[in-house]
Design brief:
This is Adenylyl-sulfate kinase. The protein is built from 8 helices and 5 strands, in the order H-E-H-E-H-H-E-H-E-H-H-E-H. It has 199 residues and is an alpha/beta fold. The protein binds adenosine-5'-triphosphate (ATP) and magnesium ion.
Length: 199
């Protein structure tokens, strides 16, 4: 635990919003591997940027190349992975950027902690359940991970030998077996407009 530390502040979040004329938020995509989190987040990021809204994607795999390269996939490491991402996403949101996180984030407790972190700072947190039946995800298997998990080469794989706790009250519930990527992006954009996060 760090001691003898003091929070330094200068510009408040409200002042930042006033100066930049932009609102930050965290869009938290959760769902099984191959449900489409990264695909939807990439498309949404491009769309938001083209519309002139600063957006930045924090993606499960990418973050594990750098910031979280010291973490594995045990429950403890997954907790720490999500905790760090929650903190980073919150910083982006505070900086009036729309943070798009795409992590399986299988445990409700971790997602709720991310939500609380944002709520305490009065920053919007939008939980998006990227839902798909596991059979469909397993058939897609773009990275060959389900195959390896079935063969026992990968252990603790969500949906196979590790649980996925579905969100009970997500702000947005997508079904990527029935909705196209474009429809998923539209659904999220409509929500952001209704909440006046984007104009
Ligand atoms: N409606 C859809 N939305 C998103 N992806 C779709 C959809 N329909 C088909 N797909 C396909 O499903 C796959 C989803 O893979 P993607 O890497 O986005 O999943 P992920 O949830 O990020 O998985 P992981 O947790 O392993 O990173 C892609 O090959 C994508 O083209
Ligand atoms: Mg992904």
């Amino acid at each position: 635990m760090a001691t003898n530390i003091t929070w330094h502040g200068n510009v408040t979040h409200e002042e930042r919003v006033q100066i930049t004329q932009k609102k930050g938020a965290t869009i938290w995509l959760t769902g099984l591997s191959a449900s489409g989190k990264s695909t939807v987040a990439c498309a949404l990021e491009t769309y938001l940027l083209k519309l002139g809204f600063p957006a930045y994607r924090l993606d499960g795999d990418n973050v594990r190349f750098g910031l979280n390269k010291d973490l594995g996939f045990s429950e403890k490491d997954r907790n720490e992975n999500i905790r760090r991402i929650s903190e980073v996403a919150k910083l982006f949101a505070d900086g009036c950027i729309i943070a798009l996180t795409s992590f399986i984030s299988p445990y409700k407790k971790d997602r709720d902690a991310a939500r609380k972190l944002h709520q305490d700072a009065e920053l919007p947190f939008v939980e998006v359940f990227v839902d798909v039946p596991i059979e469909v995800a397993e058939k897609r298997d773009p990275k060959g991970l389900y195959k390896k998990a079935r063969q026992g080469i990968i252990k603790n794989f969500t949906g196979i030998d590790d649980p996925y706790e579905s969100p009970e009250h997500p702000e947005i519930h997508l079904h990527t077996d029935k909705q196209s990527v474009e429809e998923c992006v539209e659904t999220i954009l409509d929500y952001l407009k209704n909440r006046k996060i984007i104009g």
